[in-house]
Amino acid sequence: MKKELRQFGQKFRDMALVHKMIFLYILIIFIPMILLGTFYIGNFSVHMREQYVTGKTAIMDQCRKSIENNLSQVVFCTRSFQSNADLLHYVESEDFSTANGAYTYMKTVLPVFLQMKATYTDYQTICIYRRFEKRWNDPAYVLNGLNVEELKDTNNMSMKSMKTVIYTDEKSGVTMCRMYMVLYDSRYYQKIGFSCVACSFDTIFQSLEFAENGETMLFTLNGSTWNIGKDEQGKLCLTPYDGEIPGRENQVSITVEPMGAKIDYYYRNFQLLSNNNLISVLIGMILILAFFTVVYYLFYYSITKRITDLTGYMSQMQKDRMVPFKIDDSQDEIGTMIRVYNDTAERMNRLIDEIYQKERLVGQAQYYAMQSQIQPHFLYNTLENIDMLIEMGEYEKASQMIALFGRILRYNVSKNQEKATVGEEVSHITDYLKLYSYRMRDDFHYEVNADPSCSKILCPYCMLQPVIENCFRHGFRHEEREFWVSVRVFWRDEFVYIEIEDNGSGIEPDKLRKIEQRLHKGTQREKEKSSIGLLNVHERVQLLCGEECGLRLESRKQGCLVTIRLKGRLEE
Fold this sequence. Notes:
Distance between the termini: 69 Å
């Protein structure tokens, strides 16, 4: 068993992340969703069944209270008659045959019935039937009851009992209820009559209107059973019921006091998952499962998908160059890992480019230094000047020019390195300017002012000579006047500044703008075209000191100012 578990664990560890996530999806979401859904629906069905039965019982109980409240109004009518002594005396002893009886009826009896009729407008009939027959009675409110068939069997009626008769009104076809209660004399010695209230069945039992199609409601009274339904006007009515009594499985029964009626309510079986409900539940489960699937996919995409994409990308990466991965703005660990990888790739590529660029620029600088010294016009002019001085007998100046020319050639040709110091560059350019001063005699002057504390600061090799040559090639070419070049070296903040200023013809604005663009915004093709000169110096300064350093050109009213900014790094 342990061996199989170890094998399974090893297989799981060796699985691809995609397969692991699918396996975990089935194990953690799909199967638990089905099991929990089945369990929940089962418990929910039982709970809803209990709530359904409890709700039906509560509804019937509320109906019972409402019916009894309506019947209490009928009882109130009887209690009102029973508490009126003049009314009881009239029912028991007097009628219209005497003047006193007629007076009593008009003064005390009739107002009571009129008040009752005004109060209970839903009652069709409110009257009293005498137990003992009198000669003259009014036709509406106090009547003889001996000839009323419904009152022949009233011996067992007590003061609290109520006899109810169900009938159908012949004119309207409405189901009616006629309710009788006993009236006693003022001493409660004997029965003297019966109060009678007649109203529609809907007036008393209107709270039973909630029954729906497919449900049965039976009304049982005095051994007779009716089915409770609705007539064409939407009011409750009774129809004789001669079918079989449904089972008691889905039944709620109530007894209406003091009428003594029984109401049986047979409702439909509870179906939590009918056809429509089953479809709704299935759609709901599918939507929930789809929701969790989307959440799981987003989780997978935010973690596993990004890891697999990164590893696949790294496995296909070129060996000679690192290509950054797609940008990921997420702040989680994977996003941090991708950003670190991209930063590393950019730094590696930048370092590789810098190494290639340094090698190219150093080679160009060395080639330029050699080339600038073997140009025919530089050699010929220098040698001719030396020969002229010898012919003129100025042997000392000729000797000094030869010494200067030798030092310049030695610095350019024999120095095979990438870096120099500001002091070495200033010394070399001083020799260069002095050599030109011998050649141009009184037409040229120069000035070199260098802060001694800057002499050991590192700078690119052969950095100043291309700048000085630009002064002679482009600034002093087309005019005949006295020219000068000023070189200043000084500290400012943490940087060393070298300013080379001349009073030549200057630079045209369009040409200056193009040079600035090539220095700071030029494309690779443009950089290759300008392989030497100012661009070469600018790039080597930035490679050595950083992008905040380099060359800057300014056109003056007469002449030009070139500023070289170096990082204050001491010689190693």
